[in-house]
Amino acid sequence: MILNRFGLLYSLFSILNQKNQSDADYIIAKYLLENYENMGDLNIYDVADSCYVSRYTVRRFCQAIGFENFSDLKKQFTKYDDAYEKYLMIYQHDDFNSYFMQEVNDTAKAINAIDDSLIEDIASKINDSSEVVFLTSSIGATAVAQFQQGMIFANKVIQVVGDHFENHHLLNSLDEDDLLIVLSGSAGIAKSIVPQLKQYKVKTVLMTMNEDVDDLSEYDHIYSLRNVSTDDALSVVHIKYGFMFFLDRLLSYYISEYSEKGNM
User: Fold this and answer.
1) Cβ-Cβ contacts under 8 Å for 255 (sequence gap 6 or more)
2) pLDDT tens-digit readout, 19-40
3) What's the first-to-final CA gap in the chain, in angstroms?
4) Where is each HTH rpiR-type domain found (predicted)?
5) What is the C-alpha separation between 58 and 212, in angstroms, rounded?
6) What is the C-alpha to C-alpha distance for residues 133 and 105, in angstroms, rounded to an integer?
7) 65 φ, ψ to 5°?
């Protein structure tokens, strides 16, 4: 299992944003995004013909983003349908503005209510670690990217793993002096990567919005940031903004406590 199985759209958009328009990967990614609603009717021959590439190129593309073949990729699109429907429920709400602001405010209050000692504990682990790596799905990617940039002002370099993490050279190089922080809203990713975690020597931290983490004893430390029912559409807002608010709190504390400028 790789992270991209939980962030297929993120992977496709990353290719679209980074590759040259004449690149075969760009062409395939754009075609799949444009034909998302018809994905169930497509086959590898359709993709190869429409993109003017070989079937081998399509297979190579699928493998490059973490799938055995095109059929495997199609299955992931199908699985995404349920999440997509829940996502749409939020933005099709009759009174979106009021609804959205209420959910964001509730999330902010919940994150603000987290005891300072939890923030201090995580910050201390980050400061004491030689290398710090975040592993997250697409829903937490923006929050982590902003945190990564902000930590530069505290002279701490944070790295992010977002592709084929099970073979990622960075994770393989980590040891007991380093820290791997897994950001997993519903804890789905956290559970799926347990077999891979056993291969690494690195200290592990899980930050999740799900309080049901009894079967995740493989992690050295687990922080449940909010009690959220992860089966409803509201959790999309809670997870997205919950991680953003929490990492902002963590960043603020870290800069004030560990940055030389913050202590001036």
Assistant:
1) 150, 153, 154, 261, 262
2) 999 999 999 999 999 998 788 8
3) 46
4) 8-84
5) 39
6) 29
7) -105, 15
What SS3 state is found at 34? helix
| Percent helix, strand and coil across the chain, each to the nearest 5 | 60, 10, 30
CB-CB neighbours of 10 under 10 Å: 17
Give per-residue pLDDT as tens, 209-264: 887 777 788 999 999 886 544 444 446 788 889 999 999 999 999 999 998 755 44
SS3 of residue 205 by DSSP: strand
Sign of the Cα torsion 149, 128, 169, 33 reads negative
Q: How far apart are CA 160 and CA 136, in angstroms?
A: 8
Q: Which residues pair with 169 in a beta bridge?
A: none
Question: How many residues does this entry show for the chain?
Answer: 264
**Is the model's pTM score more than 0.85?**
no
Cα–Cα distance, 102 to 105 (Å, whole number): 5
User: Which domains are present in the chain?
Assistant: 3-77 (1.10.10.10), 97-258 (3.40.50.10490)
Hey, what long-range contacts does 39-48 have (CB within 8 A, 24 or more apart)?
39/74, 39/77, 39/78, 40/74, 40/77, 40/78, 42/74, 43/70, 44/69, 44/70, 44/71
Which residues contact residue 245 at a Cβ distance below 8 angstroms, ignoring those fewer than 6 apart? Answer: 107, 108, 111, 112
